[in-house]
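Section: Multi-chain targets

For targets with more than one molecule, the full set of components is provided together so that the structure can be written out for the assembly as a whole rather than chain by chain. Components appear in the order listed by the source. The example entry contains two components.
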Amino acid sequence: MTDERVLLAHGSGGKLMHDLIRNLITSPLANPILDRLDDSAVFDITGRLAFTTDSYVVKPIFFPGGDIGRLAVCGTVNDLATTGAVPLYLSLSFIIEEGLLFADLERIVSSIVAAANEAGVKIVTGDTKVVDRGSADRLFINTSGVGTIREGINISGRNARPGDSVIVSGTLGDHGIAVMSQREGLKFQSPILSDCAPLNNLVAEMIAVGDIRCLRDPTRGGLATTLNEIAGQSHVGIKITELSIPVSPAVTGACELLGLDPLYVANEGKMVAIISAASADKVLTRMRQNHYGCDAAVIGEVVTEHPGRVVMKTRLGANRIIDLLAGELLPRIC
Amino acid sequence: MTDERVLLAHGSGGKLMHDLIRNLITSPLANPILDRLDDSAVFDITGRLAFTTDSYVVKPIFFPGGDIGRLAVCGTVNDLATTGAVPLYLSLSFIIEEGLLFADLERIVSSIVAAANEAGVKIVTGDTKVVDRGSADRLFINTSGVGTIREGINISGRNARPGDSVIVSGTLGDHGIAVMSQREGLKFQSPILSDCAPLNNLVAEMIAVGDIRCLRDPTRGGLATTLNEIAGQSHVGIKITELSIPVSPAVTGACELLGLDPLYVANEGKMVAIISAASADKVLTRMRQNHYGCDAAVIGEVVTEHPGRVVMKTRLGANRIIDLLAGELLPRIC
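Its structure, encoded as tokens over all components, is:
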């Protein structure tokens, strides 16, 4: 079994495919909804539903601190959490390039199981396609997810108001730099690990104590892109202070070396929150008690000036416009 | 614009990506839920939910009778319909190979819009990734979908009972042969078109008049695979009669030429239904009044003998076991 590989015939709908799916995918993921093996999962649900999707094409599929499986669960769980939803059920769809080692697929599925357990979600439906060699890059994963939103919760990129505080849940840039360094074979003195993590429990704790207006996970395009999106959706300005933005010394060093700006580097285990000024302290205190929020910091505020724009007070005291990325920074980081 | 192409930078999360998504994807698909542009779609829903996912990797992306966009909508709508659900909302995730023509993407998105309108579903959330040349094959699409199931409806591959009738909604093999002939540059006297179509309205009409036990769309692996799955899930035998299985003369001819068995060729606009014998006539009559069911036929029955197995009475009167496909037939047909 150790050097067995996925063949094109595993995607044909026949016996090989049924065996592959049963042995490597549905058995480790088993739960009563998935086990019915109908074309759709069926379950009862009531209320406001959140529904999201993401395809993951990260290269390489294994990187320090995670792999494409953990990423695919956490990314979709976090997208649900950004609307204040309790993530419940995920779909899981593989596009496999012919030649993928069974052992690699097994390792990724067990990483999916672990991440789903940590987040408290179930994989209830799925799909597996195999494409010929050279038509994909080892493995792409799509996860979609549904969750329920409690009555009274209204979190959206449109809700930022002047006076609100801007919080990030921890250090920036870890995921992007971890993937990039693995891809390029770079070695740093202290190894940089991806921050890839499910943040739904952190978010639930934040909602329990504070008045949360917007949540977004700063993945592709990093903090800069996320804040620009919120400023645009809410028609407000956002002011941040460079000195208050948490970045680890290792990521700072790697970014200097590589000519990257950590504000634009992807994160996979961080949340950006816009919170009423009145509850910012309480939320921050609570966040710092959570493993995934221990480096949380207030980094700025929402303002009436320069609507749609993000401005940063730099280390040297100047004001710099933080724009959307114009070109390409790091492809295939998630 | 006509020879503009997608660049790697279009996937970076920056300005280029925002422009591409707005101009080519979210504008044509606009609806109030999608237009919020949060990381998750949010809507109210109550009751039993069906949830499904499929990734589409068909090659080529344009084929006679359809394209990957129409396929991605219809496939997921049909998977929802197989549980008796009313399909409501779809997610849409693109994995684009660098170099895809804007014009091709536009054409596919407008085909998605048309299919979604026909099915009465809305695209409410999405994702776009771009990978470097050679890391994908032009375009892969994932759609996931949710729909609601009316109380009292219980349709599952587990519900077939001895005595039930087996119905197919029309001719078999059209999709697989259409894609295959396009890919291989084969020309037949009468062109063979993919049957790719949303069947949710047909299914709703069937449910309205009859006692439907199982529904499944015979895609990859064809009718043979679908019937084997149902026989396995329901622990029953299935007997079919070759002479009663509708296959168009053109597909019959092409299959003979290519050495393919239409029972194993993929369909994308057909439904296999297991129906109580008492209501089979009524359901069949109703199906034949629907454009997508006009060639519907009873092709066999569920039996107590040979549980888990499908047996076909051939044209010559012999009994042949119809097994799962052992190897590979037609890769990347959906």
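The first strand of chain B starts at residue 41 and ends at 56.
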